[in-house]
Structure formats: structure tokens, C-alpha cells
UniProtKB/TrEMBL annotation:
Domain Peptidase M14 intervals: 31-309
Keyword Metal-binding: yes
Keyword annotations of the record: Hydrolase, Metal-binding, Zinc
InterPro entries: AstE_AspA_cat (IPR055438), Peptidase_M14 (IPR000834)
Gene3D superfamilies (alphabetical): Zn peptidases
Lineage: Bacteria, Pseudomonadati, Pseudomonadota, Gammaproteobacteria, Lysobacterales
Alphabetized SUPFAM superfamilies for the sequence: Zn-dependent exopeptidases
Family classification: Belongs to the peptidase M14 family.
Species annotation: Marilutibacter chinensis
Cofactors demanded by this protein: Zn(2+)
Pfam families from the UniProt entry: AstE_AspA_cat
Name listed for the protein in its UniProt record: M14 family metallocarboxypeptidase
Length: 309
């Protein structure tokens, strides 16, 4: 799917946003769903089976959002640590619900085999507004770095910091949607005072590997598992997905740490970012959730089968 270039309705073309433009953008954001009902209520049910930790708290003009992570109840220092993150971009629904579904149905399968740490909704303000940015018009998934301007990112960095060096695997659950082209990329161009260059949206699931630590066998193990659930995105006519060369079936690569991406925060051997396409006529919301769960399980299983040595 492609969209024609269009002027975003906030700001002046070629001029980066100031505080006035950001305030105008914020005034247009509408709450569409409830973090408390959709996410926190489920997390409360997990307290009987898992450890639930509040690792941060967001306060946007009096709207307070506690940030929770779910840990294995049988945490052992001799076991590898597996991190699952979702909802870094709040609008990417299956990232949140896929992480929660994994905990509900499969986390117990790894008792005594791995330490699981799951942060299912990193950006709850954006989850409620079905948006990519936080309330300050900052993309958390370009902000995982020291002195992060996004508290969502800073809080997660604080959570994982004591465990760096112990992570075997980190999988970060995302979506690529039609709204990336119709809203979020035009908004980004307007915010930064740059021209909007239309692109395409791949139809299907794909992964983003780390160009500084490529793990092709790991990526293909995840792709093979997801392919049993939903279709894998093909390369475009130029052999690319979202502008990046396809290096293997359904896989592209980014420099995760250099870009401040969530999947680069742990130093784990095995890292990946999932991307499902919920707007495909060939996929349902439940299939998207199931694809995320299949990806998580395959990622953990591969990491367990290939320990560091």
C-alpha cells in the first residue's frame, strides 16, 4: 500500500516544530481505549503465578500510568534471562496483546529452564491513543540511549541495567500498519521539518536483525515458526522491505544500538524485532497475536538450544 505525498496539517513545510506545534499536535490526541482495562486488569491476574514488578511511573499532565514487568517466579541466577517487550509503540496492538497472551498461555512452560522478564506495554499513554509517539511527540523506539528524552525508554533501561551481561535473548514485538504511511511518517517529516517521501507497506510478517550482531539461524528459526501461523512479507521489486535490503526470507537488518532501538538495549546474543501487518486482508487480529506468541516461543527455544559456550 502506498500513499501520495501530502502536507501534514500542523506546522510549516520545511520548518521543524516548536513548542506551539507540539502543543497543537497534543491537543488533537484522543483517548480511544483503556490501559487499565486492557492491560493492567490482565497483569493483576498474573500475580498468582508470577512476580509482578512496577518498574516506573509516567505522569502526563496528571494522567498517571504505572509501568509493569512480569518475572518468572522461580528466578535463578544460574539460568539465562529472556526479555520480551511489547507496546514500545503503543498503537501496535498485537505487540501488547501478544506479550500478554504469551505470559498467560506459555510462560509457565519455561519454569526451571529460563528466567523470563516481560514488559508488555512500554508506552501506555500511546497505547490508549493508538499512537506511535509519547505525549511530548517523541518516538520511544528511537530513544533507548543514555539521558533518554523519553521516560518510557529510560524506565525500561533502568529495569534491564542490573541484568546486562546475563541476557541470552531479547525479542521486541512490533507491527507495521497502513497508518505508518497515512499518519505517522508524514507527522515525523512535519515534526522534523523534512519532506515526506511516500513509501510502501509490506504485506506480511518480517523481522529486523541487528547489523552489528547478525544471527541468521536465529532469525530463520523465528520465521519458520511464524510461517505456520501467518504469511511472511515478500521483498518488493527492488529486493527490499521498508527500504532495507532483504538479507534472508523475511529478514532485514538495522544497527539497533546506533538507532536507539529497544531491541539493542540488552547486549544479548540473540535479538530481533518482530513486525506483523494487521491491516492485511490475509490476517486477523488473533492471527497477529498468535504470530507474536509463535515468535516469542521460537526465539526462547532457539536461545535455550544454543547456549553461550
Amino acid at each position: 500500500m502506498t500513499h501520495p505525498a501530502a502536507f501534514y496539517p500542523i506546522g510549516t513545510p520545511g520548518v521543524p516544530w516548536g513548542e506551539a506545534e507540539k502543543a497543537e499536535w497534543l491537543s488533537r490526541q484522543v483517548r480511544h481505549r483503556s490501559y487499565a482495562d486492557d492491560v493492567l486488569a490482565l497483569i493483576e491476574r498474573f500475580r498468582e503465578r508470577f512476580e509482578v514488578e512496577e518498574y516506573g511511573r509516567l505522569d502526563y499532565a496528571g494522567e498517571v500510568y504505572p509501568l509493569y514487568a512480569i518475572r518468572s517466579p522461580d528466578w535463578r541466577d544460574d539460568l539465562p534471562v529472556m526479555l520480551v517487550t511489547g507496546g514500545v509503540h503503543g498503537y501496535e496492538t498485537s505487540g501488547v496483546h501478544g506479550a500478554l497472551q504469551f505470559v498467560a498461555r506459555h510462560a509457565g512452560d519455561y519454569e526451571g529452564r529460563a528466567n523470563l522478564l516481560v514488559a508488555p506495554c512500554v508506552s501506555p499513554w500511546a497505547y490508549e491513543r493508538i499512537h506511535r509517539w509519547n505525549a511530548h511527540a517523541i518516538d520511544p523506539n528511537r530513544s533507548f540511549r543514555e539521558d533518554s528524552p523519553a521516560e518510557e525508554s529510560a524506565a525500561l533501561l533502568r529495569l534491564v541495567a542490573p541484568l546486562r551481561g546475563r541476557f541470552a535473548m531479547h525479542i521486541d514485538l512490533h507491527e507495521t500498519t497502513d497508518s505508518d504511511e497515512s499518519e505517522f511518517r508524514p507527522a515525523l517529516a512535519a515534526r522534523d521539518g523534512k519532506p515526506y517521501e511516500p513509501g510502501g507497506i509490506p504485506d506480511g510478517f518480517y523481522l529486523v536483525d541487528d547489523s552489528d550482531n547478525p544471527q541468521p539461524a536465529f532469525q530463520q528459526a523465528v520465521i519458520a515458526a511464524v510461517e505456520q501461523v501467518t504469511h511472511i512479507a515478500p521483498a518488493d521489486a527492488n529486493g527490499r522491505i521498508i527500504g532495507s535490503p532483504v538479507v534472508a526470507h523475511g529478514v532485514i537488518r538495522y544497527p539497533l544500538q546506533a538507532l536507539g532501538l529497544c531491541a539493542g538495549i540488552t547486549g544479548a546474543r540473540f535479538t530481533t524485532t518482530t513486525e506483523v501487518y494487521p491491516d492485511s486482508p490475509r490476517a486477523t487480529p488473533q492471527q497477529c497475536n498468535d504470530a507474536q506468541v509463535a515468535a516469542v516461543r521460537a526465539a526462547i527455544d532457539h536461545a535455550l538450544a544454543h547456549p553461550a559456550g
